[in-house]
Amino acid sequence: MSTNGCALCGREAGFHAVSCSMAPKHDAVNHPKHYTSHPSGVECITVVEHMGFNVGNAIKYLWRADLKGNALEDLEKARWYCDREIARRKGKP
User: Fold this and answer.
1) What backbone phi and psi angles, to 5 degrees, belong to 69?
2) Contacts from 51-57 at CB under 8 Å and sequence distance 24+?
3) I want to staple 27 with a disulfide (CB 3.0 to 4.6 A). Which of 31, 46, 67, 78 is the partner?
4) What's the predicted TM-score (pTM) here?
């Protein structure tokens, strides 16, 4: 699977994921709804793959907070990754 394109059609991932002609209505593996439902049409991975692990995961949980069911849990997970990144940058274990 390429990180530069849709695993189904090869087009640039993210910008067409919602309307990919080859994607089934709900593709939980290649284009999960909670990562492709942003009003911009951009898929979450298109943005976060350019970030470090902790920051990328924080953005991922913020992105899906109101889309997957348990917004409070996703917000707490985002905070956990932010706290972890802050500690890493301060040089704390």
Assistant:
1) 125, -45
2) 52/85, 54/81, 54/82, 54/84, 54/85, 54/88, 55/81, 55/82, 55/85, 57/81
3) 31
4) 0.63
Based on its alpha-carbon atoms, the radius of gyration of the chain, rounded to whole angstroms, reads: 15
Buried b or exposed e, range 76-93, using 16+ CB within 10 angstroms: ebbeebbebbeeeeeeee
Other residues' Cβ atoms within 10 Å of the Cβ of residue 53: 12
**Domain spans in the chain, listed from the N-terminal domain onward:** 1-50, 51-93
Torsion of CA 50, 51, 57, 59, to 10 degrees: -80
pLDDT digits (tens, 9 = 90+) for 10-34: 666 555 545 555 544 667 677 777 7
Total number of residues shown for the chain: 93
Tens digits of residue pLDDT in 42-73: 788 888 999 999 999 999 999 888 888 899 99
